[in-house]
Structures are given as C-alpha cells and as structure tokens.
Amino acid sequence: MAETKRIGILGSGDVAKALGKGFAAHGYEVRLGTREPAKLESWKNEVRGTVSVGSVAEAAAFGPIVVLATHGAATEAVLDQAGPRNFSGKLVLDATNPLDFSHGMPPGLLFGLTDSLGERVQRKLADASVVKCFNTVSSLKMADPKFQAGPARMWICGNDPAAKRRTEAILKELGWGGAVDVGTIGAARWLEAMVPLWLLAGQALGTWEHILQVVR
Ligand SMILES: NC(=O)c1ccc[n+]([C@@H]2O[C@H](COP(=O)([O-])OP(=O)(O)OC[C@H]3O[C@@H](n4cnc5c(N)ncnc54)[C@H](OP(=O)(O)O)[C@@H]3O)[C@@H](O)[C@H]2O)c1
C-alpha cells in the first residue's frame, strides 16, 4: 500500500504557509503547528487541498515527514514544546536559519561557524533524519519555483543518505530540478552562512526572487 502523504509543518510564518500551500497542491495532507492556531484560520480557508492547524506537538506527530519553519532563535525551544519523541524515525526537513539581526544588515549567525542550527537540531532529534533544505531560498520560491535560467537544484545536507534521496524526490515533486547534496549535517554551517550572502546579493541586484547556484 502506498505511504500516506502526510506532512507536519512547525511554523505559521511565510515559510510554513508557502510550503503548506505547496505540499497541499501536490496531494499531501498538511498540518501546520503553532502556539496560536486561530491566526491561521483565513490561510486555511484560502488554501486548496487538505490542510489543518494544531499545536506544534500535533504537527510533529502528524506524519512521517516534518518541516521546521520556525524562527531561528526559537527553534530549539519549539522542538522541546513539540516533544522530541514525536520526531523519532522521521524525515525532518530543516528550513530554519539562525540569523542574528542585532547588529543590522547583513545579519550574523547565532551559531556559527563552528556549529549550526542544523547540527543542533540533529543533536536534539537524535532518532530522526534531519536534512537541511529550503533554507537558502525565499519562501516565494520554495514550491513550484520558476527561474529564467530554467529548473534549479536545492542545496541540501544531512547524515542519512536514504533521507537525502527521499528529500530529492520530494523536491522534484515540488518542481525543483533536484538537489545539490553537500554532505553531512555539518555542512549546514555553510548552507546557513549562504543566507547573509543571499541577502547582500538581493540588495545589490534589487530582487528577492534569486537563488545562489553553481554553474559549469
Ligand atoms: N521568510 C523566508 O523567505 C525564509 C526563507 C528561508 C528560510 N527561512 C527561515 O525559515 C524560518 C521561518 O521563517 P518565517 O519567515 O516563515 O517566519 P519567522 O517569523 O522567522 O518565524 C515564525 C515562526 O517562529 C515561531 N516563533 C517565533 N518566536 C517564537 C518563540 N519565542 N517561541 C516559539 N515560537 C516562536 C512562530 O511561532 P507561532 O506560530 O507559535 O507564533 C512562528 O511559527 C526562519 O528560521 C527563517 O530564517 C525564511
């Protein structure tokens, strides 16, 4: 029997809403998790597909895949609220960035460059397969992205090769050309560090629809 396409998303911001809408459009049952489910009522009514909203624990327990779309500084506390056991054996797609705007633009990193939020998440969710994914692109481009140069690939990293293959298949479902797998979760240090550069490039080029890619 085919696996149920169920995905829980921790978050209520632009990333959670964009990915929730995108996954629902591709046939996934989606549950968003937030401290305030009421604030997502209008979003829920606008989105086509099967979407629901609950607590972060309910979203983490919802399906075999969990997306982390929480504010970087709050992410570890949210995982504690959600209950690390709710992530056991699951694929966890970590879209978060530990950005520190306390000194203005470009932001620094709360945990870098000798650690990363991706690694901290994997340490906290030791029984889950964490794959850093979606953190290097705008929420505007996460699902069904269109680029002038044609299909693009998403930067990913993580410790579990099978989880990364599954992530690449999911990315292709969402309209990506595939993934660029840059290694273990330790590479999250560099995928997170790409984000201040992405912001500077956006300021320089006057766009927020760009992505950083390798061409050859
Ligand atoms: N925006 C983008 O285009 C983009 C692109 C790539 C990656 N990212 C990363 O993706 C993540 C989500 O970004 P976003 O822009 O969608 O939203 P955000 O404003 O960075 O975060 C919103 C989420 O964080 C939670 N949150 C904030 N403070 C909290 C606290 N003190 N305790 C518990 N939860 C807290 C909120 O929970 P409640 O729902 O309970 O209020 C909400 O779900 C961030 O890590 C960001 O760096 C963003």
Description:
- There is one protein chain.
- The chain is α/β, with parallel strands linked by helices and 216 residues long.
- Helix content is 33%, strand content 19%.
- It is built from 7 helices and 10 strands.
- The protein has helices at residues 14-25, 41-46, 56-61, 75-82, 117-124, 161-173, 188-205, and strands spanning 6-10, 29-33, 51-54, 65-68, 91-94, 99-100, 108-109, 129-132, 153-158, 178-181.
- The strands form 2 sheets. It has an 8-stranded mixed β-sheet, sandwiched between helices. It has a two-stranded antiparallel sheet with strand order 6-7.
- Helix 1 (14-25) links the parallel strand 1 (6-10) and strand 2 (29-33).
- The structure holds NADP nicotinamide-adenine-dinucleotide phosphate.
- NADP nicotinamide-adenine-dinucleotide phosphate binds at residues 11-16, 34-36, 69-72, 74, 77-78, 95-97, 99, 135, 138-139.
- The site of NADP nicotinamide-adenine-dinucleotide phosphate has 23 residues, from helix 1 and helix 4.
